[in-house]
C-alpha cells in the first residue's frame, strides 16, 4: 500500500464537526495556545500546532516553574490549560487545583474530595487518575470511588455529582472522561475483581444518567442491534454478548472500560476499547468471551453500537484492549480513508476504517511478540480477523497450574494506557512501548464480590536476546505496518507522547527524564531529569506569547507499583514488582509538575 498525508485529524474534526461536537470545547481545542482535553483533540492525536519550541532550539529548554501536588503515588494524565487557568489533578484522593498563570501560579481554588480509603486496595495497579476534562464552564472529575463530579471552572463549586459504580464489588475509576455535545461519557475499572464493564453517558448540565452500554450481556444491556451492528462487516446476530460465554459467567466477565476515548464529529461516533475478560485463568471461561478485548464504535446520543472488532478472542494473557484510538484521514491505495489506528496491549497495531470497521492492517509493533504468528487478513476465511495462537505460548493449551514461559509481550502489553502521538507533518505515530516478556501460570479461582478475581501468577523480565532494556520509543507507519525507527530505553516508556509543529516529539521515562526527539530522525535533542519517575503525559500551551511544555512526574502505575505501594514480593503487583525492582536505584516517590520554556 502507498500512503500520502492529507491533514491532521484534529483539523478534520474541528472544521467539519462544529454542528455536533461540543462547540465550547471544540473552539478551545482548535486554539493551539490552550490544552483543553487530555488527548489534545477529539481525534486523540496529541499533536500541537505550536512551533515556537522547535527542533533547532529545543536543546535550550529550561525550567520555567514547578508545582508540588502534595500527593505521592503514580501521576498519570496531564494538566489542562483554559485561558489563564491551569487545572492540575492528583492520584487518590484526586485533588484538583486551579492555578492562575497570570499570577505566578497562585492557587485560585482547590477541590479535595473525601473518599473512603478502603477504595485503595480495590484499585488494581496503583491509585492513578488520568486527568480532568473541561466543557461548558465546568471541570469534570471521575474519582477513584466512581463519583463523577462537575465543578464550576472559575470557583471550584460542586455543580453536581453522580455515582457511577460500587467499590464494594470492585468497581473503581482511573480514567478521564469524554465531554461530547451535552453529555459526559465515562468508563469503569475493575476487571481484576470480576466486574462487568460498562460505558455510561451523563447529562453535562444535571448529572442525570442518559444511557449505559455494558461490554457483555443481553443485547438490551450492550445496546447492540443484532441486524445493524457489525463485526468485520457482518451483522453480529442475536445474543452476541452472551452466546460465547458459558452459563452466567458473563455477569462477572470483566471487559472494563478504563482507557482513552475519541470522537469523530462528522460520523457522530465515539470509539474506545474494552479490557480483559475475568478471570485470568482462561480454562474457567470457555468461548470467545465477547465483547471483551473489543474496539467499539458507538453513537454518543443513545450509546448504540455501529460496529465492533474483537482483537483477542478468549484472551489468555490479560491483553486489555483499552488503549487509545487515534483518528486520521489518510490515503490508502490511492483512496482517502477515515482511519482509526490502535496500538494494542497484545503487541499488534491495528488500522481500521473508522466508518465501517473494516480491518486494513494488523502488524506487530515490537519484533519480540511471539504469542501469535499474525492475524488472518483474508475476508473470505472463516478465521478472518483472528490472531493465530502459537501453542507453546497458549496458557490454556498448556493447562492450569502449568507455568508457560517466555511469552512476549507480558501482561502489561507492548504498550499499556500510555498514549501515543501522531504528527500530520511526518505521517508517523510515536508510540511509547514496553519491551517485556513473562511467565504465566493460571490456577483455579472462585469469585467473591469485592475480592481479587485473577487466577494467575506472573513473572516479568526484559525481552531476551535484545538490547537488555524494558522499553522502546518508536515511530510507526500505520499504513505499511512498520517501525520506522526505535529508541531503546532501560525501562518501559510509561509516559504519554506529544508531537508538535516544531518537528519535535516529547516523552518521559520511568527514571524521570523528559526527552525531546527529532520527529523525523529519532535523534535525541534534549533531556532533563525531573524529581521522580514520569508516567504522566507531556502537554504544551502558550501564555503571554511564550510556549511552555509541562509534565507531571511521580513514579507509580503498574510498572512502578513496587515503589508506589512499598511492595517487595517479586510476584506482587501482578508480577511487576520483580520486573521493575531496579527502578529504586534511579528514582523515588514524588508528585510534581515541571514546566519548561525557552530562555527569555
Automatic annotation (TrEMBL):
Keywords of this entry: Calcium, Disulfide bond, Metal-binding, Oxidoreductase, PQQ, Signal
EC number, UniProt record: 1.1.2.7
Domain spans labelled Pyrrolo-quinoline quinone repeat: 35-401, 491-549
Cofactor: pyrroloquinoline quinone; Ca(2+)
CDD domains listed in its UniProt record: PQQ_MDH
Family statement: Belongs to the bacterial PQQ dehydrogenase family.
Protein name, UniProt field: Methanol dehydrogenase [cytochrome c] subunit 1
Organism: Roseovarius mucosus
Taxonomic path: Bacteria, Pseudomonadati, Pseudomonadota, Alphaproteobacteria, Rhodobacterales
Gene that encodes the chain: moxF
Amino acid at each position: 500500500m502507498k500512503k500520502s498525508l492529507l491533514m491532521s485529524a484534529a483539523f478534520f474534526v474541528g472544521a467539519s464537526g462544529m454542528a455536533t461536537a461540543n462547540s465550547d470545547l471544540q473552539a478551545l481545542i482548535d486554539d493551539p495556545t490552550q490544552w483543553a482535553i487530555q488527548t489534545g483533540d477529539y481525534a486523540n492525536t496529541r499533536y500541537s500546532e505550536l512551533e515556537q519550541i522547535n527542533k533547532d532550539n529545543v536543546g535550550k529548554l529550561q525550567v520555567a516553574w514547578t508545582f508540588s501536588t502534595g500527593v505521592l503515588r503514580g501521576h498519570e494524565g496531564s494538566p489542562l490549560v483554559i485561558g489563564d487557568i491551569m487545572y492540575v489533578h492528583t492520584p487518590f484522593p484526586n485533588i484538583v487545583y486551579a492555578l492562575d498563570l497570570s499570577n505566578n501560579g497562585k492557587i485560585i481554588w482547590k477541590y479535595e474530595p473525601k473518599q473512603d480509603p478502603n477504595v485503595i486496595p480495590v484499585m488494581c495497579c496503583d491509585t492513578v487518575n488520568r486527568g480532568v476534562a473541561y466543557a461548558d464552564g465546568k471541570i469534570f472529575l471521575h474519582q477513584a470511588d466512581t463519583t463523577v463530579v462537575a465543578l464550576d471552572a472559575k470557583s471550584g463549586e460542586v455543580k453536581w455529582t453522580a455515582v457511577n459504580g460500587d467499590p464494594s464489588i470492585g468497581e473503581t475509576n482511573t480514567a478521564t472522561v469524554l465531554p461530547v455535545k451535552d453529555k459526559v461519557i465515562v468508563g469503569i475499572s475493575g476487571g481484576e475483581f470480576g466486574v462487568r464493564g460498562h460505558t455510561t453517558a451523563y447529562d453535562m448540565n444535571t448529572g442525570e444518567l442518559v444511557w449505559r452500554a455494558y461490554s457483555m450481556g443481553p443485547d438490551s444491556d450492550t445496546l447492540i442491534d443484532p441486524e445493524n451492528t457489525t463485526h468485520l462487516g457482518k451483522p453480529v446476530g442475536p445474543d452476541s454478548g452472551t452466546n460465547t460465554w458459558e452459563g452466567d459467567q458473563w455477569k462477572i466477565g470483566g471487559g472494563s472500560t478504563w482507557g482513552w476515548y475519541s470522537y469523530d464529529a462528522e460520523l457522530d461516533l465515539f470509539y474506545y476499547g474494552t479490557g480483559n475478560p475475568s478471570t485470568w485463568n482462561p480454562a474457567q471461561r470457555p468461548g470467545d468471551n465477547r465483547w471483551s478485548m473489543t474496539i467499539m464504535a458507538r453513537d454518543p446520543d443513545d450509546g448504540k453500537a455501529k460496529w465492533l472488532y474483537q482483537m483477542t478472542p478468549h484472551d489468555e494473557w490479560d491483553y486489555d484492549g483499552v488503549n487509545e484510538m487515534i483518528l486520521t484521514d489518510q490515503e490508502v491505495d490511492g483512496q482517502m480513508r477515515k482511519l482509526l489506528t490502535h496500538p494494542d496491549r497484545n503487541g499488534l497495531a491495528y488500522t481500521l476504517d473508522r466508518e465501517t470497521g473494516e480491518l486494513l492492517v494488523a502488524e506487530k509493533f515490537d519484533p519480540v511478540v511471539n504469542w501469535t504468528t499474525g492475524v488472518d487478513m483474508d475476508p473470505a476465511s472463516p478465521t478472518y480477523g483472528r490472531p493465530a495462537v502459537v501453542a507453546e505460548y497458549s496458557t490454556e493449551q498448556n493447562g492450569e497450574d502449568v507455568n508457560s514461559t517466555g511469552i512476549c509481550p507480558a501482561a502489561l502489553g507492548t504498550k499499556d494506557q500510555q498514549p501515543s502521538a501522531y504528527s500530520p507533518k511526518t505521517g508517523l505515530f510515536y508510540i511509547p512501548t514496553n519491551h517485556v516478556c513473562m511467565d504465566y501460570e493460571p490456577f483455579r479461582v472462585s469469585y467473591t464480590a469485592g475480592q481479587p478475581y485473577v487466577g494467575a501468577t506472573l513473572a516479568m523480565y526484559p525481552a531476551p536476546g535484545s538490547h537488555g532494556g524494558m522499553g522502546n520509543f518508536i515511530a510507526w507507519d500505520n499504513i505499511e505496518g512498520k517501525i520506522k525507527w526505535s529508541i531503546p530505553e532501560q525501562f518501559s516508556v510509561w509516559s504519554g507522547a506529544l508531537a508538535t509543529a516544531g518537528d519535535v516529539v516529547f516523552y518521559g521515562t520511568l527514571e524521570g527524564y523528559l526527552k525531546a526527539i527529532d520527529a523525523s530522525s529519532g535523534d535525541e535533542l534534549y533531556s532533563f531529569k525531573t524529581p521522580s519517575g514520569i508516567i504522566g503525559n507531556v502537554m504544551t500551551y502558550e501564555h503571554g506569547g511564550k510556549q511552555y511544555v509541562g509534565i507531571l512526574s511521580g513514579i507509580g502505575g503498574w510498572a512502578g507499583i513496587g515503589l508506589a505501594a512499598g511492595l517487595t514480593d517479586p510476584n506482587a503487583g501482578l508480577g511487576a514488582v520483580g520486573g521493575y525492582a531496579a527502578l529504586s536505584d534511579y528514582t523515588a516517590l514524588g508528585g510534581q509538575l515541571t514546566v519548561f520554556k525557552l530562555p527569555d
